[in-house]
Amino acid sequence: MKRVIFNQKGGVGKSTIVCNLAAISAERGLTTAVIDLDPQGNSSQYLMGEDWQQQETNVARYFEKTLGFKLAESDPADFCVETQFERLWIMPSSMELNDLQSKLEAKHKIYKLRDALDQLLDQVDCIYIDTPPAFNFYTLSALIAADRCLIPFDCDEFSRKALYQLMGNVAETREDHHPDLAIEGIIVNQYQPRSNLPRRMVQDLKDDGLPVFESTISSSVVVKESHEASSPLIHYRPTHKLSLEFEALYDEMNSQ
């Protein structure tokens, strides 16, 4: 299974969701890979710490390889790194992704990530893809490569407006490139159930027939603490409310 976490709006928790779901997957016994396509490298830092930028094995090296003629000889696992967490791999990000984008677009390399991740599934059980907060070459590559799309939503008016545009982009990708791409569900993040506005917004999405997960993720400072510790919640605070919420979300996703 290949899942992409996609939202064109920044600050909605994509990297937090990617890393925590992937960490739970690995903790449940599945060899799991995270692919970090965001040049900011938030997922890379979350799982690897401050030294992630010194890592020479990364996703930019993979994309550079696609610009040559020897990709068929390469194993995509060679561009991954094993994290400190058992069964959890990452293909780290790189700031060089910004410079590579125009070259990759010019060479029409939009399907190369799909081919690499299909090959990587021979060695891992599942893959989670983190994307930039923009609809660009890397985001489109991720949507083409994935089986399912997860959409974070943080209960404000800007997010609601962006959500419908985002779903239009997913529908266009499905029509033009990948007819089997499915929106698995909308993840309500930083949810405050005692506030009227978040409850009303979530209900509006459900009334519109959108696939909103029943499991929600609350807002808590423990998330920032786990970022600083470079340790997903299942390892940092396994009995915390947020850890249990992520586990409930993971179980709901995998019961469908």
Shape: globular
- Computed over alpha carbons, the radius of gyration is 17 Å
**What distance lies between the first and last C-alpha atoms, to the nearest angstrom?**
13 Å
- Secondary structural class: alpha/beta
Number of helices: 11
Q: What portion of residues belong to β-strands?
A: 5-15%
Uncertain regions spanning at least 5 consecutive residues: none
As a percent range, the share of helical residues equals: 40-55%
Listing every helix as H and every strand as E from the N terminus to the C terminus, the arrangement reads: EHEHHEEHHEHEHEHHHH
**Total beta strands:** 7
- How does CATH name the architecture? 3-Layer(aba) Sandwich
CATH class: Alpha Beta
**Largest β sheet strand count, sense and barrel closure:** 7 strands, mixed
CATH overall fold name = Rossmann fold
Tell me about this structure.
A hairpin with a 5-residue loop joins β3 (81-82) and β4. The longest helix is centred in the middle third of the chain and has 20 residues, at 157-176. By secondary structure, this protein is of the alpha/beta class. The chain has eleven helices and seven strands. The protein has helices spanning 14-27, 42-48, 59-66, 97-106, 112-120, 137-145, 157-176, 196-207, 221-229, 233-236, 241-253, and strands at residues 2-5, 32-36, 81-82, 88-91, 126-130, 148-153, 182-188. The protein has one domain (2-253): Rossmann fold, CATH 3.40.50.300. The model has no long low-confidence stretch (mean pLDDT 92). It is globular, with a radius of gyration of 17 Å. Strands 3-4-2-5-1-6-7 form a seven-stranded mixed β-sheet, with helices on both faces. Helix content is 45%, strand content 13%.
